[in-house]
Every structure is written in C-alpha cells, then in structure tokens.
From TrEMBL:
Pfam families: adh_short_C2 (PF13561). It comes from Pararhodobacter aggregans. Belongs to the short-chain dehydrogenases/reductases (SDR) family. The keyword Methyltransferase does not apply. InterPro entries: NAD(P)-bd_dom_sf (IPR036291), SDR_fam (IPR002347). This is Oxidoreductase. SUPFAM superfamilies: NAD(P)-binding Rossmann-fold domains (SSF51735). Signal peptide: none annotated.
Length: 268
C-alpha cells in the first residue's frame, strides 16, 4: 500500500485559494506535477508567486464554464507533462438563496459553478485517461482518479443555503454515477464532503459574528474547526494507490458534525 503521488500529474481547479490551493500545494510538496487552475487570474498569480519557477507547476487562468477553456486547461497539462493521472474538482462558489423569491438566480448560478464545471472537466479528463490506458502495453489497475470537493450541506437542511445544498447534492450524485460509468475503464471517482473549515470566508464571518465560532465548535463532536491541510491529506489518499479499490464513495470530513443530533433528550 502506497500513499505516494510522486511523478503523477494532477489538474486541480479552484486552486487560487482555500481548499483547492491547499491541495495543490500539498501535491507539489509530495512530488506531483500540478496544474493550478482558477478563473481569477490575478488571485491565482498572487497565491502562486513563489511556485512560478518550479518545474512541476503550471498555472492556468480561465472560466471553466466555457467549454473552450476546459479544452485549453487539458492542453496546458498535456503540453507540460504529457499526461493526466488525477483531477480534483475543487471549484466552489457560495451564495445565500431566498427560497421564496422567483427572481433569485442563485440556484442556477451555483449549479453552473459547482456542478456543471466539474462535470465538463471530468468528462474531458476522463477521455484523456482512457486514451492513455489504451496506449499502455498492459491494462493498468488504475487509469486515473477523479476527486470532487463537496459539502455536508448536501445532507443538511438550511433554506438560506438552498442553491449551495442542491449543487453539492447533485455533485455527489454525479460522483456516484461517474464512478459506475468509468469503473470499466479503471478510473476511480470519489468525493470529499467537508464541514466547517478555517478559510478566509469563515474568518470574515467569525470576525463579524464571534459567537458563530463557538456555535460551530459546540455542534462538532471533535470540538474544533477543521483545516484545509486535512482535506489535502485525505485527497492524497484518494488519489494514491492506497485507495485503489475505492470508488463511488463520499468521504465526510467534518469532525463528526453531520452525525450529531443537536436535539438532546432531557436529563433524568
């Protein structure tokens, strides 16, 4: 059993900041060739300024809602490293939804950002992984690994998060469907459903509402807030041969928050 991803080539979307950035940097440190992709070119270059001269790093700025940019992203990886072994769909957009406002377009927007981008990118990369496997002398045990970053919001009911919850639930169903569809080609597809992580967005929220931090901790059995580096380490496991017999799974990383019933029986 090996957790090594050294020499593998990974495309990581949403890599300018947050979870995507943490995963991409971790993969670079572990010896993988990494294409950092993000739609915000300025933020991407700023966050990766110290990586620009590394031979195992490339940057790609483009809006993956446009099909041409998906093709250009794949070409960037192939031009630099000749192949793609790992795709991590970490592009994540968040917005509050008014569930009773028919003019609110956040559901459509979040489905486009959080689901459709991952689907189109997965389809393009999977076709390349299949081609690479066909060119091998013997059929590989694993031809590629696709990992989607989801949220426990997919399984929790918060009306103001309608669009975010729906898009993540759809992403998890996409994960299962693609896992079955791509299994004959030895491509594994899994997802990581994350709880509250200490990110820039959460820091801003806590700065404005300090009580929110205590509420999260109180609702998390492990009594702390997670880190993006913990997601990166789990992503490495799912990308490595250590998880070679694992596909179609939604792995939850939330400190136990999603299994806690917050309505407790009264004490006797």
């Amino acid at each position: 059993m090996s957790f090594s991803i050294e020499g593998k080539t990974a495309i990581i979307t949403g890599a300018a900041t947050g979870i995507g950035h943490a995963i991409a940097r971790h993969f670079v440190d572990e010896g993988a060739n990494v294409v950092f992709s993000d739609m915000n070119e300025k933020r991407l270059k700023s966050g990766c300024d110290d990586l620009a001269d590394l031979p195992n790093c490339r940057l790609f700025a483009g809006d993956l809602r446009e099909k041409l940019n998906v093709a250009n992203l794949l070409s960037t990886a192939l031009d630099a490293f000749d192949r793609v072994d790992i795709l991590i769909n970490a592009t994540r957009s968040f917005a509050v939804t008014d569930p009773l406002d028919p003019t609110d377009t956040s559901v459509e927007t979040l489905l486009d950002h959080n689901l459709n981008v991952a689907l189109r990118t997965s389809q393009a990369v999977a076709r390349r992984m299949i081609l690479q496997a066909e060119q091998e002398d013997t059929k590989p045990q694993v031809a590629g690994a696709i990992i989607n970053i989801s949220s426990i919001a997919a399984h929790r009911t918060q009306p103001e998060l309608l669009g975010f919850s729906i898009s993540n639930a759809a992403l998890e169903q996409m994960t299962r469907s693609l896992a079955v569809s791509l299994a004959p080609q030895a491509i594994r597809v899994n997802a990581i459903a994350v709880g509250s992580l200490m990110s820039g967005t959460l820091r801003d929220t806590i700065a404005e509402h300090p009580e929110y931090r205590e509420a999260i901790i109180a609702g998390t059995p492990l009594h702390r807030i997670g880190t993006a580096s913990e997601v990166a380490e789990l992503a490495q496991f799912l990308a490595s041969s250590a998880s070679a017999f694992m596909t179609g799974q939604i792995v939850t990383l939330d400190g136990g928050r999603s299994v806690l019933d917050t309505v407790q029986r009264p004490a006797h």
